[in-house]
Write a structure and sequence with these properties.
536 residues; alpha+beta; Rossmann fold; Alpha-Beta Plaits; 7-stranded mixed beta sheet; 15 helices
Length: 536
Amino acid sequence: MSILKEIQKRKTFAIISHPDAGKTTLTEKLLLYSGAIQIAGAVKSNKIKKTATSDFLDIEKQRGISVASSVLSFNYKDHKINLLDTPGHKDFAEDTYRTLTAVDSVILVIDCVKGVEEQTEKLMQVCRLRNTPVIIFINKLDREGRSPIELLDEIEEKLSIKVRPMTFPFGMGISFRGVYNIYKNEFEFYQTNKQQIEDDVKKFSGIDDPELSNTFGEDVLTLQEDVELIDGIYDDFDTEKYSAGEQAPVFFGSALNNFGVKELLDTFVEIAPSPVARETTKGMIEPTEEKLSGFVFKIHANIDPKHRDRMAFVRICSGHFERNKYYHHVRLKRQIKFPNPASFLAQSKSLVESAYPGDVIGLYDSGTFKIGDTLTEGESFMFKGIPRFSPEIFRIVINKDPFKSKQLEKGLLQLTDEGLAQLFIQKDTNKKVIGVVGELQFDVIKYRLLKEFGATCDFTFMEAYKAFWLKFESQSDADELFRLRSNSLYTDKTGNVVFIAESPFSLSRAQEKNPKVEFLSQVEHNDQTVELESIT
Ligand code: G4P
């Protein structure tokens, strides 16, 4: 098969949601429909949770939280689908944000009872950075939720995206009768706890088909009014607007009851984009380019608890990857070959001989990779757009075993290379500060430092609001910062100068006093802002 055909076959996406909206359940149902797993009937999500998502870390099992994301690949209707799973817990949001840089589209799950929640908004902001196309699945229609129109309004307003309902529910909760597919003029009848995956669909000639009244009686008027209203309010579905991330098609259903999922998957394979071009430091790279390129978006530790191996997940962006061929590690300026690259078909990991744009491969790694690293066939460019956000919680690292300082240092460097947390070192004192998005990360770090590196440490409280990467032309522009606030100045791992503000007030004071300095709360992994070495 030609490379172009291989590219067109692929759809690489992620399912995102606020925790508990039904992401895991929907993932399982998609796997069921595709035939990637066979479990009779609608099973409780926990049963598959253990096998369908990766459970590599012990801590993940202990806490029952999906700490790390994984890749699930499956075939459906001549397409190869790569589903990148993302951790639902908000404390691991950074991992999710990075995974979003490796997909070409997303399915967003919204709970019809709760509507747009906090994490939904944050995730959509990240999708917006790259105009990622979004399909929305409004879930849990078997429950008494908010009115569908109200939900659609809320989505448009809070997520700043135009919506286009593709199906529309008839009733909700105990009176839920099914969904009408506006484009196909079909009605899918709802059944509670549908035990088999089968269609229960009736075709009509249109929303005014008299057969609809014969089927539903007088109640059908509500459905007819709703569908007519929708056609009046919302623009028709437009593939171009969807691909540009401007319009989101919306489906209604109940993942738990296998309802509305097939419709979603069928439309997904029809409209979701195949691998798209990606921005690099030398311009856009098309997937059809002959030479291989790809980037590391995730590093996963402890695949095999007996070894200290890590696995670097690489998204192939162009060309053709082959096992045992030498590739260029751009940051290290080194040629490396990979004898055991892994692919992830359904739930099993297997050796991969070759991979194409859109695929994600796992490379065993003993510390050669960092998030954002690029592989090429000799060229020196890096992929852009892999975000690094300011952490929200900061703690000072206290070494509890002076004989293990080296281990602690190594452990902190490795864990922060994986993107588990960010490390900042105070300019004058060498004090180490760890910044994270959620408290839980400190437990993970402590646990892994001890288990993998034999180092024990504590974290003490630090009064801090946010970290800001500084951008300025010359040191005199930042004179006040260096003279009076040097104990708030740190370096990150790449040597960039960072200002950790104690409070929003101290930030605005610093901004007032240093008007020529830019304070950035978000940079990219391969960005260099101002290196401390260059000014001191
Ligand atoms: P998440 O990955 O987004 O965090 O959500 P998950 O799929 O784990 O679903 C969260 C809860 O919502 C689960 O219930 C799940 O069964 C339920 N759920 C998912 N889809 C539907 C739906 O269509 N209708 C209804 N009524 N519930 C749904 P749980 O009690 O927390 O867990 P479990 O014991 O059922 O696994």
